[in-house]
Write a structure and sequence with these properties.
The protein has 99 residues and is mainly alpha-helical. The chain is built from 3 helices and no strands.
């Protein structure tokens, strides 16, 4: 592999302002999955479901969320729900401190 940063997907380059900043052509062999939100898992808690319903249409409309992203998007929603839970808890202990 060539030295330097890894190439970014063409969709990300386009969202950042296009190829005028990268000076490279688009990858003709790049996979192009359909921009379609994956189905929401049934086992998400209420906060994670709300975040899924809020973010999925936005990311789908931008063309950056596909069915391939199911696991990572689920993890993001779960992480967001945990962050909300621990920041609204108002306890003195940090989540990272354990018991």
């Amino acid at each position: 592999m060539k030295p330097g940063p890894r190439p970014q997907p063409s969709k990300v380059i386009d969202l950042k302002g296009g190829r005028k900043h990268t000076h490279r052509e688009g990858n003709k062999n790049e996979p192009t999955p359909e921009a379609k939100a994956p189905p929401m898992p049934k086992d998400l808690d209420a906060v994670a479901q709300t975040e899924w319903k809020r973010m999925a249409p936005i990311l789908e409309r931008l063309g950056v969320l596909t069915e391939i992203d199911h696991g990572m998007f689920e993890a993001m929603c779960i992480s967001y729900a945990e962050w909300i839970k621990y920041t609204k808890n108002g306890s003195e202990k940090s989540y990272c401190q354990g018991t």
